[in-house]
Structure formats: C-alpha cells, structure tokens
C-alpha cells in the first residue's frame, strides 16, 4: 500500500499541533489534517495569559504560529482537508476526506469542539450581522455600541470584560441568578462599571432586517417578556453567545466510544476503545479544557502512538 503514514492527526489546534511536534520529532511519518483553520479556538483568542511562559503580548495567533513552525521543522506534513468518514477496523486505518483518502498505522483525533448556539429565531439569519461567537473577531465592530453577552461561565464573563474595551455598555444575560465563572473572574466583572447583569433571563428571538435591531428577552422566574430595541442613533447592538461547546465527533460515531454529550472517552494515556486510535484535547472527556491541557494531551497521544506502532508493526 502506498503512502502509509505512521500517524494521521485529525485537527490542528493545540492538541493536534503538539502531537505533530512530538510525532515529527520522533521521526514518525506524520500528517495533520487541518480542517477549516489552524489553531482551533486558540487562533481567535486575544490574550493567552495562563499558558506557562507566555509573555504579556502573547496572543492566540502568535502562539499558534510558533506551534505550526515547530511542527513543520520536525517534518510533519499538513493538508487542508476535513474527514468525512473513517474505518478503524483494520490494522491500517483509513480516513476519507473531502479532498483525498489517507492510510495510517495510528490515528490521533484532535477535532476539538464548536460553540453552542442559543437556538432562537433570527440567530442563524443574523449571525455575522450582529450575532457573534467570538469577541476577539468582532469586538471592534461594536465600538461605542451596546452589546449583550449570553452565558455565565468563565468564557462568557472573560469575553464580557474584554468587550468593555470597545462597547459603551455590556450586559451579561444569564439564565440563572448567579454566575458559574470562577470567583476571581466574577469579581472583575462586578467591579467593572461598564458591565450590567440580566439574571434568570434568556433570549427567545432576535430581530432585524439584515442587521440586529432588537432582541426579545424572557425572564424564567417572572415569566415577563421584554423586547429591547437598539438605540436610534446606533441602529444596532451586538449579541455575543458563550453558552458552551459541542464536540466535533460526529464522523467517529459508531466506531469510538463517547459520553452522552459526544465527547470521546479515553484513558489517561489517550487510548480510545479502538486499537491504535487516540484522542487529545477538547474532543475528549475531561474536567479542564485549556491550551495547556490540550497540548499535554497531544504530547501524550503522540508518545503512545509511537509505542503502539513499535509493538503492533514489528517486522
């Protein structure tokens, strides 16, 4: 069989790039399927303050660029393609992509997770026209405008704080009566004069003709429904959604064990239930999804993949 890789890494976020670095350094014939973008979620992160060794001006794109450069230097190949089907039953695994078919002795799944949507009318139609899932990408469009941030976890509150650098007012809309974010992050938000809170509330409709012009809010405790319109002078406002993520694991359904949410189940060595198939980063069941844990997962997965190949493909 022609062009059989030692390892094919599906996904090019911190987990996938870390795996590529370690696999390439171990002289494994390595291929990374990049998907839609290199870097995953970190590529759209404005600041990376909690990654050990990161400097004050470190950003997601700069960290990603360094990871890519390292992986390239160690000989990892990269191809922009998206896996549409997989066959993990044989000793040599098969991945069919939109652009090609790939064969490999081992697989590392590092496809990550995608932002979850509100699911209300108008959200899809007005995405990119006032509705956003990335403050870093779109904050500048709302300079001196009002914005609403949906969510109450770490990401939602951190992004709300970031948005105060641009917006004239930020309202955090949370379905409960208290935030789920870490206390230190909550304290920063409560002390920020630009941030207000709308408790026990959800957005049930987003309206506008080509741009967000109003949104309907429902109070889950009182049952009251209120429609808030954009200021006449502004003409619009922003809605930033941070209500969690969904794992990108659909293509592996039926051949890899997952939990109820779709996250891939692994052991501490990143082994899945399929022999020679590993998972790393946000795609797997874990308690902390951060750049540092994704990178660690990727390193472990690559090392374990090398061990697997050494034993499974003895001549």
TrEMBL record:
Reactions that this protein is recorded to catalyse: [thioredoxin]-dithiol + NADP(+) = [thioredoxin]-disulfide + NADPH + H(+)
InterPro entries: FAD/NAD-bd_sf (IPR036188), FAD/NAD-binding_dom (IPR023753), Ferredoxin-NADP_redctase_2 (IPR050097), Pyr_nucl-diS_OxRdtase_2_AS (IPR008255), Thioredox_Rdtase (IPR005982)
Cofactor(s) required, per the database record: FAD
Keyword Protein transport: no
Keywords, sorted A to Z: Disulfide bond, FAD, Flavoprotein, NADP, Oxidoreductase, Redox-active center
Residues covered by the FAD/NAD(P)-binding domain: 5-298
Family as reported in the entry's similarity comment: Belongs to the class-II pyridine nucleotide-disulfide oxidoreductase family.
Name of this protein: Thioredoxin reductase
Upper taxonomic lineage: Bacteria, Bacillati, Bacillota, Clostridia, Eubacteriales
Gene: trxB
């Amino acid at each position: 069989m022609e062009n059989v890789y030692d390892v094919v890494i599906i996904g090019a976020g911190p987990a996938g790039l870390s795996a590529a670095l370690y696999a390439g350094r171990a002289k494994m014939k390595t291929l990374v399927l990049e998907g839609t973008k290199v870097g995953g979620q970190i590529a759209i992160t404005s600041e990376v303050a909690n990654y050990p060794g990161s400097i004050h001006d470190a950003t997601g794109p700069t960290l990603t660029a360094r990871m890519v450069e390292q992986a390239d230097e160690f000989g990892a190949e990269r191809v922009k393609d998206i896996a549409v089907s997989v066959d993990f039953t044989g000793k040599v695994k098969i991945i069919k992509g939109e652009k090609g078919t790939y064969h490999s002795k081992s697989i590392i799944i590092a496809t990550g997770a995608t932002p979850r949507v509100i699911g209300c009318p108008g959200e899809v139609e007005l995405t990119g026209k006032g509705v956003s899932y990335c403050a870093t990408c779109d904050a500048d469009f709302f300079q001196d405008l009002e914005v609403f941030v949906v969510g109450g976890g770490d990401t939602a509150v951190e992004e709300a704080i970031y948005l105060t650098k641009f917006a004239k007012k930020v309202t955090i809309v949370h379905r409960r009566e208290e935030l789920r974010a870490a206390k230190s992050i909550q304290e920063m938000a409560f002390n920020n004069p630009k941030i207000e809170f709308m408790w026990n509330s959800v957005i049930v409709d987003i309206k506008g003709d080509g741009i967000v012009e109003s949104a309907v809010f429902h109070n889950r405790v009182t049952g009251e429904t209120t429609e808030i319109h954009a200021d006449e002078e502004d003409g619009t406002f922003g809605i930033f959604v941070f209500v969690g993520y969904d794992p990108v694991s659909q293509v592996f359904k039926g051949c890899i064990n997952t939990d109820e949410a779709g996250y891939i189940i692994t052991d501490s060595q990143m082994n899945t239930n399929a022999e020679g198939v590993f998972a790393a980063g946000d795609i797997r069941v874990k308690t902390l999804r951060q750049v540092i844990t994704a990178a660690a997962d990727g390193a472990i997965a690559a090392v374990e993949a090398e061990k697997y190949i050494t034993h499974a493909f003895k001549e």
